TrEMBL record:
<feature type="transmembrane region" description="Helical">
    <location>
        <begin position="34"/>
        <end position="63"/>
    </location>
</feature>
<protein>
    <recommendedName>
        <fullName>ER membrane protein complex subunit 6</fullName>
    </recommendedName>
</protein>
<dbReference type="InterPro" id="IPR029008">
    <property type="entry name" value="EMC6-like"/>
</dbReference>
<keyword id="KW-1133">Transmembrane helix</keyword>
<keyword id="KW-0256">Endoplasmic reticulum</keyword>
<dbReference type="GO" id="GO:0000045">
    <property type="term" value="P:autophagosome assembly"/>
</dbReference>
<comment type="similarity">
    <text>Belongs to the EMC6 family.</text>
</comment>
<keyword id="KW-0472">Membrane</keyword>
<dbReference type="GO" id="GO:0072546">
    <property type="term" value="C:EMC complex"/>
</dbReference>
<feature type="transmembrane region" description="Helical">
    <location>
        <begin position="83"/>
        <end position="103"/>
    </location>
</feature>
<keyword id="KW-0812">Transmembrane</keyword>
<dbReference type="Pfam" id="PF07019">
    <property type="entry name" value="EMC6"/>
</dbReference>
<dbReference type="InterPro" id="IPR008504">
    <property type="entry name" value="Emc6"/>
</dbReference>
Length: 105
């Protein structure tokens, strides 16, 4: 009976294909980059800048995150090892790029 318990425990260990996770992460980064460009164009057309522009950037990234989560049918663990990949990856890097472009830092 102990053998079955240990076998069940081994069946519950999640396994990930590293190539698939890297590909999915790359897709997230491309999606965030594309949405940053589109958001920047929209912000430019609307004349949004300064602190309002940064808030607009985070709003665009929140919409992007919601779209990516919806694309996975909110079953993120089937495609990534954690929610952090879909929620946080690429957001701060994109913000730094946005600040660099907006303010010439």
């Amino acid at each position: 009976m102990d053998k079955n318990k240990s076998s069940d425990a081994l069946d519950e260990i999640p396994t990930f294909n590293v190539d698939n996770i890297q590909n999915n992460t790359r897709i997230i980064n491309y999606s965030r980059t594309f949405m940053s460009i589109i958001g920047g164009v929209i912000a430019g057309i609307l004349g949004v800048n300064g602190l309002t522009g940064i808030v607009f950037y985070f709003l665009v990234m929140a919409i992007t995150t919601a779209g990516l989560a919806a694309k996975t049918e909110f079953s993120v663990h089937s495609y990534f090892d954690s929610w952090n990949r879909i929620v946080f990856d690429g957001i701060l890097g994109g913000l730094m790029l946005t600040l660099l472009v907006l303010y010439g830092l």
